[in-house]
Amino acid sequence: MKKAVRLTALAGAAALALAACGEAPTESTGDGSAAASDFKPCIVSDAGGFDDKSFNQLSFEGADAAAQELDTELVDVQSASENDFKGNVESLVAESCDAIVTVGFALSATTIESATANPDIDYIIIDDAADADFDGQADADNIKPLLYDTAQGAFLAGYLAAGYSEAGKVGTFGGMDFPTVTIFMDGFKQGIDYYNETKGENVELVGWDGEKGSFTGGFAADPAAKQTAQNVLDQGVDVILPVGGPIYQSAIDAIEDSGEDVALIGVDADFYESDPTTQDIVLTSILKGMDVSTKEAVLSSGNDEFDPTPYVGTLENGGVDIAPLHNFEDKVDPALWTEVQDLKESIIAGDVEVESYLAQ
C-alpha cells in the first residue's frame, strides 16, 4: 500500500497520550504496494468524546474496525473542547498519520487548514462538506466528506411519534442551531405534518417550527440541557427527540424528575444497543451509518483507493434509517409500524419527498 514511503513534514505535539500504532513492515504484496501494517489511520473526536454513545463513538468504531481489517492500530485523540481541535489534529500529523478522520462539523475549519498544508494525508470529515467557500466542493482535494441525509430517517420517526402520541403533542430540542442538528428536526416536523395530512389529525410539535426552536447552546449533558428538556416537557409532550449527542442524558433526567410517561427518540446510534439504560424509554432511534461509512473510507485510504467524492447516506443506500422498536414493539400499533415501513419504501421510490439541504 501507499504510505510506507511518505516523508511528510511533521508539526505539533500530542495533547493526549496516543495509542501505539502499526507493526513492523512486512513483505510487499507483489503488486508494488506496501504491507497493511505500514498504514497508520487516526481519528480525532468532537468535544463529546468517543464514549458519547452517539456519533463520536460510531465513527471511532468504524475507524477501528477498518484498522483491524488492515492489520494495524488506530491512533485516537479526544477533544475536551473546541480549543483542542487544532492542537489535536496537528498532533496526529506529527504522529505520521496516513489518514485522519475528523468527527463533526465543528472540526471543519481545522480540517481544511490541515489538509491544505498536508496534501499527502487523506482526510475524512464526518458531518460536514468542508466547503467554507460554498462553491459546492471540498476546499482541499484530499478531503472526503461523509454526510447523512438524516431528514429521511427523522421523517419516519416523526410519523411514528405522531401516531404513537396519546397527548397529541411531541417535542424536540437541539444542542445548537446548526444544519447538522436542524436536519433532524426538519425531517421530524415533516413526518408529523405528513401524518396530520394523511390522517386528518393535528398532532403538535413543540420545540421547532421549521425556522426556530429550543436549543441548549452546546452539546454537553449539563443543567442547561436538562432545563431545555424540561421546558419542552412542561408543554405536555409524551414523545421527545433530543438532537445533539450526550444531551439525551439530560432529557432522561428531566423525564425521570417529571414522573410522566414520556418516550425518547435517539439519534445517530440505536440507543437501545449503545446505551442499555435507555431500553425502557427509547421508542426508536434515527440512525446514521457512520460506523459503516467511516470504515469504508478508511479502508479505501489504506488500500490506496482513496476517493474524495462526498458520500451522502440515504434510506436507499442504507446510510440512514430508523431503528427497530425493541421494547416498544408491544406498545406500538402494528398497523402504524407497517405504515412506517411502507413510508420508507415510498421515500426511496421518490413518491414521498423529504426536503433537506442534502436532498439530491
TrEMBL record:
Protein topology in the membrane: Lipid-anchor
As for subcellular location, the record says: Cell membrane
Task: Give a Pfam family name.
Answer: Bmp
The name this protein carries in UniProt is Basic membrane protein A
Q: Which family does it belong to?
A: Belongs to the BMP lipoprotein family.
* Record keywords, A-Z: Cell membrane, Lipoprotein, Membrane, Signal
CDD domains (alphabetical): PBP1_PrnA-like (cd06354)
Q: Which organism is it from?
A: Promicromonospora thailandica
GO CC field? plasma membrane
Q: Where is the ABC transporter substrate-binding protein PnrA-like domain?
A: 44-301
Q: Where is the signal peptide?
A: 1-19
InterPro entries per record: BMP_lipoprotein (IPR050957), Peripla_BP_I (IPR028082), PnrA-like (IPR003760)
Instruction: Please verify whether the record's keywords include Signal.
Output: yes
